């Protein structure tokens, strides 16, 4: 049977979404895809997700193994379509490999597409708040924590204190209850810290970030919030987004 051609005159539009974010999530990540979808202000923002194989436990050496696989993960994000930005959703992976290595691998297959990461987005957010000192909360073990603190202090504010859950299994990080993250954030804060940074895209800090800010009375930046914020700005979305902390609630300058 031959199909009857549609007689209605039509033309193609740009497809779903004026602002298109490509997201590379870790294979073991339970949280970041949910967070990005929840934080979307409207269907004008679309998120296309790919995943990259990561190796447990979460150590600096294991994190580095993702590097060669990022180009393949990026190539699967609407390969023949427009993407405004690609977000690699691993804070510790970026600190282990370095931003340039991450971006270079992704841009092997997505040439000229801007690349954002949680740590570089987090540092931009802390700079926006004028933070010269920061307290840090992480779920990581010691070698990953050391790499993170070195990266922060080499590229941004001085770290006044580090508090950690000391978890090596990436799957377990997603099991930290949001209320526990809230209590740990209060514990991690220091009077001499201008802001608090909560690292790791695998934990549910977005759920309680507004509550933490209200309790501490200072800016709080967490990985998924900062990554989404910079992804929006690079994609060209400039309006405020409510419900997920002060950072997203500010319109672009």
Automatic annotation (TrEMBL):
Gene3D superfamilies: 3.40.50.12500. InterPro entries: Iso_Racemase_Enz_sf, MaiA/AMDase. It comes from hydrothermal vent metagenome. It holds the Pfam family Amdase. This is Asp/Glu racemase.
